[in-house]
Amino acid sequence: xxxxxxxxxxxxxxxxxxxxxxxxxxxxxxxxxxxxxxxxxxxxxxxxxxxxxxxxxxxxxxxxxxxxxxxxxxxxxxxxxxxxxxxxxxxxxxxxxxxxxxxxxxxxxxxxxxxxxxxxxxxxxxxxxxxxxxxxxxxxxxxxxxxxxxxxxxxxxxxxxxxxxxxxxxxxxxxxxxxxxxxxxxxxxxxxxxxxxxxxxxxxxxxx
Length: 208
Ligand code: TYD
Description:
By secondary structure, this protein is an alpha/beta fold. 57% of the residues lie in helices and 12% in strands.
């Protein structure tokens, strides 16, 4: 595949969505064809599955059912959107991808971690070229997330303790996997964008 696949990860309210938009704009100034997309969702059918996942009561799904819904949405998104874009020399920026499932659904549950690893291999079969972890203080990000007050609060309702655990899981994934790069997201939008751009421009050999 000729395109380059970048994913952004981080806990709720970490500012990764804003960073994804700024990164898209910057890459376009370098003449790159860019697709900015997100998970869960990114394309019509997958957005419909997203609504099932992010709205409603916390105990609406069992952990396994929830994991399978994320993978159903991801497979559809891959087939309809990500793979065709990567095949046509497009740089794809995806706001969350499989690492989110590992962190949020996998957690410390070994059975689910194994299921996710297997589904990644059997159903997804695609690893990002570069993953940027926007690392922020959970206290800060949670208040940011809750301030947005959308209907999509099923995961944000999990509270501070959940976000702190998710942050630690992200940090250990970042240590484990070479494609992961941790970005300090505590310093404001512009400062964080500069750190994001430094990583991406290094990887894509682009200079200002
Ligand atoms: P997102 O829209 O990225 O939320 P935010 O902008 O607040 O970061 O994602 C919605 C929620 O879905 C978010 O709380 C994280 C959760 N999620 C999972 O639990 N597993 C997954 O595999 C993905 C992609 C998201």
